[in-house]
Amino acid sequence: MLASFLIGLAAGARALTPFAAVSDAAAKGALPADNGAPSWLGHPLVSAGTKALAAGELWGDKLHSAPDRIVPAGLLARVITAGIAGAALAPRNRALAGGVLGATAAIVAAYVTFDLRMAALKRFGQTPTGLVEDALTVAAARAVVGGVERRAV
Fold first, then answer.
1. How far apart, in whole angstroms, are the C-alpha atoms of residue 58 and residue 95?
2. Could you list the residue ranges that cross the membrane (predicted)?
3. Is the separation of the CB atoms in 8 and 101 below 8 Å?
4. CA distance 124 to 49
5. Which three-class secondary structure state does DSSP give residue 35?
6. CA distances from 37 to 12, 41, 73, 98, 131 (A)
7. Where in the sequence is the domain holding 20, given as residue range(s)?
8. Residues 102, 36: contact at Cβ < 8 Å?
9. What sign results for the dihedral spanned by CA atoms 62, 12, 118, 65?
10. Rounded distance, CA 97 to CA 111, Å?
């Protein structure tokens, strides 16, 4: 259940990157056999689509017109993606709890990372802070999913 919580924290910063990492692992068959992932999550088209959407989110975040992550649409995206990813990383019999844990962590992390980003933005600017946040989120998502993959072997 720790993985569900941690992937939710990562989703607080970027809604789609952690979701794409979990979908990619599902497509590769790298999630534990007794996972709570919906069957469609590992479909090659879903995996490719989530990666494309995550790349678009990483790019779009640097635009001045990008909405804040704490607007209702941004929070809803985090609830959905972190909920599915959290469920996928939980054992099948605890998928609902994993989903709730992931979604809840994402909401809390969205507010925390928003405040941190706004403080850093004043000093370093939008693009540099966004790139650092991107790197941290990608690394966190990969680490969480990689830890689950290692346990599956």
1. 28
2. 96-114
3. yes
4. 32
5. strand
6. 20, 7, 24, 10, 30
7. 2-152
8. no
9. positive
10. 22
Joined tokens for residue 22: 């979990």
The model's pLDDT over 8-18, given as tens digits with 9 standing for 90+, comes to: 999 999 999 99
Residue 152 has pLDDT above 70, yes or no: no
Cβ distance 111 to 16 under 8 Å?
no
Alpha helices in 14-125 (DSSP H): 17-27, 44-60, 72-89, 95-124
DSSP state of 153: -
Q: How many domains does the chain have?
A: 1
User: Mean pLDDT in the chain?
Assistant: 94
Average pLDDT over residues 49-62: 95
Q: What is the mean pLDDT of residues 11-40?
A: 94
Q: Mention every residue, 6+ apart, whose C-beta is less than 8 A from residue 65.
A: none
Distance of CA 131 to the CA centre of its chain: 16
Q: Within a 10 A sphere around the Cβ of 88, how many other Cβ atoms?
A: 30
